[in-house]
Amino acid sequence: MKLVAAALLLRGTQVLVCQRTRHQTMPLKWEFPGGKIEPGEQPTDGLRRELEEELGILARIGDEVARLKHVYKNGNAVELRFFLVREYEGELQNRIFADVQWAERTRLPEYDFLEADQELVRQIAAGGIL
Question: pLDDT per residue over 55-85, tens digit each?
Fold first, then answer.
């Protein structure tokens, strides 16, 4: 099972969402920024590293607010850990995504999110978690 840490990067009532490129697996799906945690790496350290690589920011990783496991139809399994990020240093840069947007929390279900993220998206849009 692949361990992934993702950020719920907040700006007021908005959450940062990122769209995969057409060359990645699950092309053009939306997701929260983050990525795979390397063996021996703490999830918060891995998330900090991923946010610097993907968005060029130095994030202050907050509390873990959700953890879920998902098995895709192809058999790939993932454990996702979601952390709040309210503060960061640096200017946001789109280094790897097709698109990056600040989305109103209530409008998140309008985005075509990865299957593993969809329940969390519904909870956030309904006013839970954040």
Answer: 999 999 999 999 999 998 889 899 999 999 9
Q: For the domain 2-125, what is the CATH code?
A: 3.90.79.10
Within 10 angstroms of residue 93's Cβ, the number of other Cβ atoms is 11
CA distance 20 to 29: 6
Query: What residues of the chain score a pLDDT lower than 50?
Result: none
The residue ranges of every structural domain in the chain are: 2-125
pTM over 0.90: yes
Between CA 34 and CA 29 the distance in angstroms is 14
d(CA 29, CA 25): 9
User: Cβ distance 86 to 12 under 8 Å?
Assistant: no
